[in-house]
Amino acid sequence: MSFLSRLRRFPFWGWFWLILGALYFILPLYATFAFSLSWDPADPFKAYERSFGDSRFWNSFLLSNILALATILASIILVVPTAYWIRLRLPQARRLVEFLTLMPFVVPAIILVFGMIRIYSTPFTIPFTDIVFMQPLTQFKAGTNILIVAGYMVLSMPYMYRSVDTGMRTVDIRTLTEAAQSLGASWFTIITRIILPNIRSALLSGALLTFAIVVGEVVLASFLGVNAFGPYLFLLGQHRAYEPAALSFVSFLLTWIAMGLIQLVTGGQGQAAGAH
Amino acid sequence: MTHLALSGISKHFGDFTAVRDFNLDVKKGEFVSFLGPSGCGKTTTLRMIAGFEIPSSGMISLEGADITDKAPNQRNVGMVFQSYALFPNMTVAQNIGFGLQVRKEKESAIKDRVKEMLSIIHMEDKANSFPYQLSGGQMQRVALARALAIRPEVLLLDEPLSALDAKIRVSLRAEIRSIQQKLGITAIYVTHDQEEALSLSDRIVVMNVGEMEQVGTPFEIYNFPTTRFVANFVGSLNTAEAEIVDPNKGTLIMDGARLESSGELKGRNKGDKIMIAIRPERLSFLSEGKKENVLDGKVENITFLGSVVRVDVTIGGRKFSMDTFNRPSLELPKIGETCKVTCSDKAVLILKE
Ligand SMILES: Nc1ncnc2c1ncn2[C@@H]1O[C@H](COP(=O)(O)OP(=O)(O)O)[C@@H](O)[C@H]1O
Ligand SMILES: [Mg+2]
Description:
The complex is a heterodimer of chains A (276) and B (353).
Chain A: H1 2-9, H2 12-36, H3 46-53, H4 55-88, H5 94-101, H6 103-106, H7 109-120, E1 124-125, E2 132-134, H8 141-170, H9 173-182, H10 187-198, H11 200-216, H12 219-224, H13 229-239, H14 242-275
Antiparallel strand pairs in A: 1-2
Chain B: E1 2-13, E2 16-27, E3 31-35, H1 42-50, E4 57-62, E5 65-66, E6 77-80, H2 92-102, H3 107-120, H4 136-149, E7 154-158, H5 166-183, E8 186-191, H6 194-200, E9 203-208, E10 211-216, H7 218-223, H8 228-233, E11 238-246, E12 251-254, E13 257-260, E14 273-278, E15 284-285, E16 294-304, E17 308-315, E18 318-325, E19 338-342, E20 349-351
Parallel strand pairs in B: 3-8, 3-9, 6-7, 7-8
Antiparallel strand pairs in B: 1-2, 1-4, 4-5, 9-10, 11-12, 11-14, 12-13, 14-20, 15-19, 16-17, 16-19, 17-18
C-alpha cells in the first residue's frame, strides 16, 4: 500500500521526458567526443593536437573573436540608447521596433548578404555627379569587416534588443532618469552611470548570445570572403574527419560555459533585484 | 521677497486640461503643500516646476529669473519621488554624492557633504549599504538626503510618504518638516492626505480638477473653507443649504430653524439660497438657556473614537455629525432620543459658489 502510494507520488512521466530530453542532447555530443578520440588509439587526443596546432585555426578563431567583440560593442551603442528612448519617450513605437528586430528570423542570412553585396559593391558617388568619394566597401579589407559587423549586428538584433528591453523593464528607468536629471545629470551621464550598470546582466546575456552567433556564423563570412572561424570549420568538415569533431566538441563546451556564465551572473542579479 | 513664482500656468495634454490658470508666489523657506484628490493636477504642477513638463502657457520664475523652458538638469531643484527612485547600483553614500559628482565638485568636498547629510538623516551606519538592503522609510530618507545634498533652490516632494506604513509615515513627516526648517529650504509638497498637509505646511493650496480652490494657512483652510469642495475635502464637515433672511445681521433659515452666522454675506440678498458648513466639533448639546442657533435633532448613532465621541444627529431630515471630547463626566443622550444642539454664530461658515 505504502509502496503503491509512493509510486503514485513519483512523477514518472516527468522524469521520463527529462531523461529522454537529456539523451537527445547528450548522446550526439558524446558520439562526437568519442569519435574525435578514435583517430589514433595510441594518441586519443591527436585530433585536438592537430586542430590546435594549425595556425589557420588560431587566425580564424582570433578574427571571429574580434568581430564578435566589435559586433557586441556596436550593438550596445546602437541598441541601448534606442531601447531606452523608446521606453522613455516613444512607447507607441515599441511594437514596430520589436517587429523590426525579428526580421533576421524572417529574412534568411543568404538574402541579407546578397543584398549587402549588391548595394556596397558599387562606388559611392556624390549625388548628381560622377565624383567618387568612397570605393565600394567590398573592395578593401576594412570595408568588408565593417560590412560583416553590420550584418552580424542585424543577425544578433533579436537577442540583443530583447535582452536589453527586458533588462530595462525590471528597473523603473523613467523615474530613475528623472531623479538623475533633477540632480543635474546629462543624458550621457544617465546612460553610462545609471542605465548601463542597472541592465548589466541583461547586457551580458545579450553579449554572450551575440558572441555565440558570430563565432559560429558561416553564410555571411563565406560570401563576403572573410576568413572567420565558421567558414574554416566548414571547410575542415569537408576535407577532414576527426578535427571537425574535436572542434565541434570544443565549441559546444564553450557555448555551455557561456550559458553557465549567464546563469551565474543573472542569477546573482536576480536575487538582488528580488530583495529590492 | 518672492522666491518661486508660478504665474498663469496651464497644462494641456491634447484636449485634456490637467492644470488651469495656476498662480502662486512662494517665499524663501516656505513649506507649501498641494492638496487634492487623485488626478487633480498636483503632480503635473510639480513636474512643471521640476522641468519634466513644459507649461502650455504661463511662466515659472525662480529668484526673478524665468525658468519656464529650462531643462530639468539646469534648474537646481531637488526632487523626492513616491517610489524613492534610488539608484540600485550605488550605495547610500554614492547615491547622496551623485549630484555633487555630476557637478564635478572636489572628492573631499563631496565626502564631507555626504557625511553631513548622513548625520542629518541619522543613517551614518548605512553609508555603504545598497538600497535593496534598506527599509522603505530608510530609502526615502536617503532620497531626501540625495535631493538636499546639491543645496537646491527648491525641494519638491511628490507624495513621499504614500508607500510607507502609517507609523513611519507620521515620524518621517515630522523629520521632513524639521530638516526643512533647519536648512531653511523652500519646499513644495504634494499630497492627497489632508492630515499630512495640515500638519506640515506653512500654506496649503487645495486643488480640484486642475484648478486652485483655495490657498491659505492650515488654520485658514481648516477653519474657514471658502468652497464646498474644500469644506468637504479638508476634515469632515456638515454642509447644508440655507436661505438668507437678513444679509446684514447674518440671519439664515435652514429647514425651518433660525441660524445666526458671522460669515461674509456682502453682496447677497434676502431670499438667496446659499451653502453653509459647520465643523462637527463646533456643534454641542444645549446646556444653558441659550436662544440663538438652537436646533432640534434626534440622535441616530453614537461612536467612540478614543478621545472624541462622534454623535450622528438628524436635524430637519439632514444628517449632522458632532464631535465632543470624551470626558468622564460626559452625559450623552440615548440613541433615538430627541436633543437640542447648538453652535456659535462664528461656527456657521458661508461657502462660495
Ligand atoms: N503625460 C500625460 N499625458 C496625458 N495625460 C496626463 C499626463 N500626465 C498627467 N495626465 C493627466 O492629468 C491629470 C492630472 O494628473 P496628475 O497631475 O498626475 O494628478 P495628481 O498628481 O493630482 O493625482 C490626470 O487626469 C492624468 O491622467
Ligand atoms: Mg500624483
